[in-house]
Amino acid sequence: MRNDVGIVDFFAMGKTGLPTGISNVDVLGCSLTILRDIRACGGTEGSKKDISGDVVDMLASSGLVELLISLLREFEPPAILKKTVRLSENQEASSTPSKSCSYKGFRRDVVAIVGNCAYCRKHIEDKIREQDGILLLL
C-alpha cells in the first residue's frame, strides 16, 4: 500500500467513486476498502475468537495507523471546511498546494480504517493522540 500511495497523483482531483479507470487509484481504493472491512467484520460477542483483532494488531505494528494519519495531514481540508476557512492576505500564493483526495470517499475510507483500528485498543488510540490525529479524524 505504501508503494501505491507513492504512485497515485493526489494533485488531480478525484470527482468520482471507485472504479475510477486509473489502475493505481483503483488498487489503493480497493485496498482501503478491504482494510476498512477487516476490522468492521470483527467477532461478535458470541464468537470464540476475534480473528480481525490479530490482523489489526499486526497492521498497526507495521505502521499503518501512522501512515494513514500522515496521509490525512497532507490532504486539503474537506470541501465543507474550505468554504468556511478564509485565506489570510499575508499567505504566500506560491505555497505548496495540498493534496486532493484521489477518489470520492477516499478521506472517509481512511478515517473509517483508523477509527475501526482504534476501537477497543488503547495503544492505537495513544498513537493517534501522539500524532495529534484526533482533529484530523473529526
From TrEMBL:
InterPro entries per the UniProt record, alphabetical: Ataxin-10/CTR86_families
The protein here is known as ARM repeat superfamily protein
Give the taxonomic lineage as stored in the record.
Answer: Eukaryota, Viridiplantae, Streptophyta, Embryophyta, Tracheophyta
